[in-house]
Amino acid sequence: MPEPRGPKALYLPAVAVLAQSVTMLSGGTVVAQDNKPQPPATAAPQGATLEDTRLQLGKWIETQQILAKERKDWQQQMELLRNRIELLKKEISGLEEKIVQAEGEATTAGKKVAELQAEHDKVQAVGTRLEGDVAGLEGEVRKLLTSLPESLRGKMQLLVQRMPTKETTARVSTPERFQNVLTILGEVNKWNGEITVDNEVRTLPDGRRAEVQALYVGLGQAFYVNSGGLAGVGRPTAEGWQWEARPAIARQVLAAVEILQGKQTPAFVPLPVKLQ
Predict the structure, then answer these.
(1) 222 with 244: CB under 8 angstroms?
(2) DSSP state string for 50-106
(3) What is the pLDDT of residue 24?
């Protein structure tokens, strides 16, 4: 296997050639001073020609030039290696700093994720509780619907249909369900605070269906009257409104309806009211 080429590898053959040349030229030993290579002695051994001496001297000079070039190249390579090592050290130091920074950021991110997860769990628990609350409110609203006048129920039909059942609960968000319930209760509260006149079709005591004008005093009491002089009183119950015929109050009810419609001058009209 060939030995690696380098300053030392080249220097040893060169020394051997030099020693041989010196021996041939002087027939003796050449001593180097200050560890520097010395040129061969000028005295030529017996039998040596001037041409041989010139050739040996040329080889010696060539050897010195090769050694000098190899030494210079080796020093340049060493300097490049040192610079490369320093650059790698800086890169390693920079990477170590980035690793430390990334680890710190990962720790911070982990804490933030834990905080967000805790917040998410809290919000989810509140959402579950609110979902149960809105379901209870929807149940109460459904019970309330049976005690509302038919006109008011018809007005809120679309809102009532938006209240989800067990099959459609997942399709409606909790905030939407709350908003729907609040809208229904708002309409009920508005009706309860007003005196409302509405045209309705009601079953008369003789079983006939006739159109009447109904006068609602909030949601606690109502009266009706028709053009034939039939009148009655209605009150809400858990099963719906119950109506009772009262022909004797037909004139008072008609007067109150016409006052509300602007057909008569406002006046005091006595009507029977039952408080519960």
Answers:
(1) no
(2) HHHHHHHHHHHHHHHHHHHHHHHHHHHHHHHHHHHHHHHHHHHHHHHHHHHHHHHHH
(3) 43
Closest CA to 221 of 185, 188, 202, 196: 196
Which residues, at least 6 apart from 146, have a Cβ–Cβ distance to it below 8 Å?
Answer: 238, 239, 240
Structure tokens at 235: 């009150």
> Distance between CA atoms of 224 and 234, rounded to whole angstroms?
8
Burial bucket for residue 44 (CB in 10 Å: 0-12, 13-18, 19+): middle
Integer Cα distance of 46 and 27 in angstroms: 8
Decide: helix, strand or coil at residue 133: helix
The structure tokens 């040349």 sit at 21
Element (H, E) at 224: strand 221-225
Pure H helices in the chain: 7-26, 50-145, 150-155, 157-161, 174-192, 250-260
- Yes or no: say if 218 and 147 are a contact pair by the CB < 8 Å rule: no
pLDDT digits (tens, 9 = 90+) for 159-207: 998 888 766 655 778 889 999 999 999 999 999 999 999 998 887 777 7
Name the residue with tokens 């379901």.
135
Q: How far is CA 226 from CA 25, 79, 120, 230, in A?
A: 155, 117, 61, 6
Is the overall model pTM greater than 0.90, yes or no? no
Domain ranges of the chain: 7-91, 193-260
**Integer Cα distance of 62 and 42 in angstroms:** 18
pLDDT tens, residue by residue, 140-156: 999 889 889 988 998 89
